Amino acid sequence: MDWLKTIASAAPILGTVVGGPVGGIVGKGLSLIAEAFGCEADEDSVAAAIKADPQAVIKLKELELQHQTVLIEWQRVQLQAELENTKDARSREVLMTQAGSWMGSVPPALVSLVVTVGFFIMLYVVLGMKKEEVSEAALLLLGALSSGFAAVLNYYLGSSLGSYRKNSAIEQMSGTGRNAGKTGGM
User: What are the residue ranges spanned by the domains of the chain?
Assistant: First the structure.
């Protein structure tokens, strides 16, 4: 995914759009890049075109500048979709709990408990192993449990990443961000 890092470092707003969770918006971002690089609008073609072009960083910065308004709107749509997803999941839990169903609070709490305990057990096991004993499978499991543990924390405590991204998007839209006066919003 080096091509995503290249996009994100050269054109942060475009990188957020292309690396985001909303498929339709990601596709629009890929199409925009593909048009600028004269390639097909799929990840492999865009990645190859970026890698092959020595002027890729400059092209990406120019592309972001030319389409900044629409990119910020696409970014807003992505953030809204993320917020709605979180809101829907939490609303379901609240409604089921209010209805007196044990399904409202027990399953999320049970899953959270299993993930949290599993994460710390696996962490203890991996840290207790000698370097040559640590298998790829153990590290993959620890990584998966780490992601799950982060999701549990996010669910119950909120996401500082989500807050950061929301605040950054608001700053970019209003032009009051730390970097608002710099070229390309960087």
Answer: 2-77, 105-164
What residues have CB less than 8 Å from 148, skipping those under 6 apart? 115, 118, 119
pLDDT digits (tens, 9 = 90+) for 35-46: 999 999 888 999
- Written as one letter, the residue type at 55 is Q
Q: Nearest to residue 45, comparing CAs of 61, 64, 27, 71?
A: 27
Query: How many CB atoms are closer than 10 A to CB 121?
Result: 11
Which tokens sit at 5? 């890092």
Residue where the block lists tokens 């399904």: 103
In angstroms, what CA-CA distances link 34 with 17, 29, 128, 129, 185? Answer: 14, 9, 48, 47, 22
Residue 178 phi/psi, 5-degree rounding, is -55, -35
Q: What is the pTM of this model?
A: 0.49
Axis crossing angle, helix 43-52 with helix 56-66, rounded to the nearest 10: 120
Q: State the alpha helices, DSSP H only, in 1-105.
A: 2-10, 12-18, 23-37, 43-52, 56-66, 68-98
